[in-house]
Structure formats: structure tokens, C-alpha cells
Amino acid sequence: MTMMGYNGIGLDVDLSRGSLSPFPLEEGFLLRYLGGRGLGVGWLTEREPFPEDPLGEEAPLIFVSGALNGSSAPTSGRFSVTCRSPLTGTIVSANSGGFFGPALKRSGFDMVVVRGKSPKPVWLNIQEGEASLHEASDLWGLGAAAATERLRNLASPQSRVLAIGQAGERGVLFASLVNDGDRTAGRGGCGAVMGSKNLKALVVHGSRTFPAAKEELYKAALYQTQKLIRSFPVTARALPELGTPGLVKLMADHDMLPHRNFQDVSHRPEDVELLSGENLRKTLYVGPTGCALCPIRCGREIVVQGVRGGGPEYETLANMGANLGIYDLQEISLANYLCNDLGMDTISLGGTLAAAMELFERGVLTVKETGGIPLAFGSKGFLCRLTEMTGLREGFGKILSEGSLRLARRFGVPELSISVKGLELPGYEPRATTAQALGYATSPRGGCHLQGGYAVSLGFFGGSREVDRFLIDTVAGHVIDQQDSGCLSDSLGLCRFASFSLGEGEFARLFAGFTGAEIDQTELQDRACLIQNQERRFNIRAGFTRRDDTLPERFFTEAIPLSGKNRLIDRELHFRPLLENYYRLRGWDEEGVPPAPGRKE
User: Fold this and answer.
1) pTM across the whole model
2) Which of 148, 181, 383, 400 could be a cystine partner for 161, CB 3.0 to 4.6 Å?
3) Does the structure show a pLDDT above 60 at 231?
4) What is the CATH number of domain 233-420?
């Protein structure tokens, strides 16, 4: 049966030549890589020359709709942006929700591959299968919100816009792409790649529909997934009621909320309360928001100083709040607004500011270097100023805009960058969860909880799969399972939160019913292994080795009190065997090298 659910067409955009060329996507290639993250990774690794310079003209930037975008599957609104990261040098697939992904697929294209560099700023318009480039000189310099409003007026009010702000234009190495106001493809610096090409935005709209290929199978799968999401406590109650800020108190209670650049996890209970989801709901909250086809609606719409917008997620509260010793919810929320408009990853910005504050604490940095700003932990009133300086690359912000590793190396103490492969860690203390420690070390894009498998969830939201967070013996297998499940979510275009209640069996039935593909759970899991092997091969080509599958030195040498014990990660007793077991279970050799590509992996 011929596969359905896809357009079977991609768009090649050469900005240097100003050319727009549709191209066919073979059914076999689509089935091999599915969509979203998988299809972006497959295209970059199989169809493109290796991008030596992530910001070079010929380095591709690939926008891909999820395989289930265009369906009615719950949470099927996510898409991916794939490139070589200018921040880390790794392969990166930045994932985002909102409504852009389904709109891209309905516009007539499954993916858009952008290369080259326009002589002048431009924006790409795709309406009902027709694509065109337009000058964007009058948009250059605008924040994402103003650019989005103007572009909808120029194209069509129903269009969806994916844009960069000033951070992407000016080459901030952790610049993000922004759609629907506060939904971002945030990690790894895709916004800087887009800015280097003088591309301000993609604007898409279409009305194409995608009927299910196997209607009865699809309806049964749809009923089952909807029922599971409605019945699992995390997706049915916890996330709808408090959103991700609801994690703040949970992480603090389990000694996992970082403090002072991960030097400790010690917070006063009254300070934790100030950052909590409960306090946000009581003080700033207006109502819930959700992405396309989302029954969970974990987003928080808030009002701060008369400004209405998307509220901070847990990662922003942890990294730009708790880890900096800042507990002012309004100040963090205003800085979050700025990050959304400038287009910056709040995790990397928070990690970079934390490194700067520790440098300041040690006397390595002074107010002379920082432009008069006292960068002590807990300093109030400077967060928005630092955010703006970084996004505009002005003053000390120019140094901050390069990320924590370059900052710490500049001042001779690279160990103060709490990053893996150059990507700053999110807000989960790895000494308090063995699975997340291994996940950080083995994530293909560096210090990432999501592509590391969001293994922290196994200790709290795993349901029947829940495991002790200090587990050692079987943790490598659990991390791999979580990474594979997350890879499939990213490729199918489903939200990671849906996988708290869904598994690969539900994924396979939804995909088979929607597309008509003859595929089961085991074959879908094979796709996840293939995609992650391709990511690993790319990173090896980029110069990464087993030595890079590690954690910041702090976690091996500095013990902190956790659950009544002083805990650190024992490099020889625990971490090395964990990593070796992970390689073995992945089918990689002792240096972490996957086998040569084959027809089945």
C-alpha cells in the first residue's frame, strides 16, 4: 500500500542564488527516517556534504514537520530544526511546539532545506504549495513578536511564522527560533545559523488535509491514546494545573534544584516557594495555553507589569532563577519575555550567567570587565539588563553571547562551565539521579535532558516504568529506552509529555493507521536506533570521542548532601561501568563507535 500522511515533497532554498526548487521525497526514505528529528538527521547525514563551518554559507538548515503533523493525534504539533550547532559543533535537532509544524505540512511541503546566504535580509513565504522570497530589510532589527505581527499582515492573518529576533541576527551562539510568541526551537543555536544566512523568518499556510490510510486502525489507536493521556495523573492533572513550573518544589524536595552554578542544591524553603508553580498561579497567572491538538495545555499565560505573554517554564525558573540565587518571579518573567522576543535559549543563557557569577565570586571577573554590573549570586535588578546586553551583543554581553565554555576558557577556568560537549546543563542535578547523569553524558547534542532521555522522569513520572533515581545496575538500559522513546516522539511530532502515558506500541499504531505503513513497535524502535547511530557518526566526524561522553569535573570531585548522604559521582566505580554498559547495549565498540551503516540497525 502506498504510504499516505505525507506530501512526498521537500523544498530546496538556495539563498545565494535566490532559487526555490521542490524535490521529491522517496517513500523508502520517509519510512526509514519518519519525520521531524529523524528526517532532518537522515537528510543531513545522507544527502548533504559535511558542514565544516556551522555558520558557513553552504551549511544547511533543515526544517521538518513531524510524521504525525496533519493528523488528529493528541499533541501532534511538534517539528524539528536540524543543523550543525555553532555553539557546540555537534549535530543538533531543536524541537518546538506551537502550530508551525502542522501548518508547514499543510502548506504542501514535508521539509524545507535552506542553504547559502542572501545578499540582503529576506523572508520565505509558503502559501498553499507556492514559495517565494521577499526582502526583509525593514524587518531586520525587530524582535520576534513585532516581526511576526508584520509578516502576518503581509502574508495572510492565518499564517504561522517562525522567526529570529535580534540575537539570531547578531550571531548569539545560543540564539533560538520563535513561533507563536513563546514556543521556541531553543537549543544549540539554530537561530544564529538562520541569522548567518540573512533569513529573518519562514511564513507558512496551507489547507491540505491528510485522511487516515487505515481508518479503523487509526480510530482505535486514537481512542486508546486519548484515554491514556486523560487517565495518567501527570498528563491529566499535574501539568494542566501547574504546568512545568510545578516541578520547582518537587525538584527542590528531592535535592535536584541547582544553586550557584551547581555548587550545591541548598535553597531556603521560602525562596523555593517564591519560584513555585503554585506561587505563579496565585500571583501572575491568567490562564492555560497549549500547542496544536494538545489536551494537556501545560503553557502558562501571565501578566507582569501590565505586559501579557507566555510564562517561564521550569527550565527558565531553574536556570535563570534558582541556579543564579534569584527568586524574584517578576524579574525572571520579564527576562523570559526578553528571551522570547530576542530569540535566546534560557537554559544556555542561565548557565552562562551562572558561570560568570562564579567567576565574579572567585575574583576572576570584576566590575571592570562586566561594565559595572556586580555579578554576585543573588544580585537583583540586573537580570533583564544582562539578558538584553547578551541578545544585542553589547558590552559584556558580547562575551556572554558565546556561551559558558568559551567564557570560562577565556578566563582560564574551563571547569566552571557546567556543560557537556559545550551545551549548558538544564535544571536537574546529576549527582541526585544516576540515569540523568548518564543521559547528559550520552546525549547527541550535549548537556540536554530531553535528548539525554529525560531520564529524570523515571524517578517521578514513570508509572509502571518508574525506577529508583540512584539505581546503578540496570540504568544504562533505562536511559537507552528513554532516549529511543524521545527520539521517536521528536520524529513523529509528538510532545514528550505524551510519552509519560504512551509507549512505542501506541506510537506504532498511530503511525501505521495514519500512513498505512506496515510497521510494528519493534520496527519503529529500530528506526530510533538508526537515527541515533547517524547522530553519533556525525559527531565522530565532527571530532567528538569517548572522552567527550563525560560530565563537568565538579560532579566527580565535589560532594553535596543529598537525601542524608554526601554524594558525588564516582568516576571509576560507577560512571565508567555505566558508560561501557551503555556502549555495549547500543551495539557500539569500546570507544563508542557504532557499526558501519547497514540496511537494518
Assistant:
1) 0.97
2) 148
3) yes
4) 1.10.569.10
